[in-house]
Write a structure and sequence with these properties.
alpha+beta, Aminopeptidase, seven-stranded mixed beta sheet, 5 helices, binds coenzyme A
Length: 152
């Protein structure tokens, strides 16, 4: 099955269910209201599996550039290739929207996500020092800016 065939766009009416998945994946979850507002903003879409697996990717494609806003897979659905297929579908959507590059930000200590993005051909193009605050007991973590060239 192609990645495009196995994913579908999510509507604003699904914000609650996307928030539930986001909350299962991140320590600082986005609310359904935040997700609905993002989905209502220009050039923004969320892709989720056509079946009942719990994951989604959100991207924004505007003015020749695209950006991954978030990628989340619930713990029970991990290591089955879902994130890779969601990212591949996001790349297709960025291409359809005529983006030249796809950007994302990832915490420098997020080994699973870094492995995924490097495997897809993303390259590190920048670093934001101490961007992520993990609370008083932990050191701040750098954000890595990664880019996939879509000029093929
Ligand atoms: C990162 C995340 C999206 C991966 O989802 P997933 O569906 O488990 O990923 P996949 O099964 O598609 O794995 C694709 C590749 O990612 C890497 N990867 C994923 N999980 C990994 C892990 N626990 N350890 C090491 N590498 C991992 C591997 O390179 C893997 O390829 P492989 O299976 O051939 O080794 C998921 O762990 C998650 O939601 N984490 C919390 C939220 C997050 O960090 N989002 C990204 C923020 S930038």
């Amino acid at each position: 099955m192609t990645p495009e065939a196995s994913t579908r766009s999510a509507s604003g009416a699904e914000a609650e269910s996307l928030a539930e998945i986001h909350g299962a994946a991140f320590d600082r979850p986005w609310s359904a209201g935040e997700i609905a507002a993002l989905l209502d903003s220009p050039g923004t879409l969320a892709l989720r599996p056509a079946g009942d697996q719990k994951g989604f990717v959100m991207l924004r494609a505007l003015a020749g550039e695209a950006e991954i806003l978030t990628l989340a897979v619930a713990p029970e659905g991990r290591r089955r290739g879902l994130a890779r297929s969601l990212m591949e579908a996001a790349v297709v959507q960025a291409l359809v929207r005529q983006a030249q590059s796809l950007f994302l930000e990832v915490a420098a200590d997020n080994g699973p996500a870094l492995g995924l993005y490097e495997g897809l051909g993303f390259e590190i193009v920048g670093r934001r020092k101490g961007y992520y605050d993990r609370g008083a007991a932990s050191p701040r973590i750098d954000a890595l800016v990664m880019r996939l060239s879509l000029n093929r």
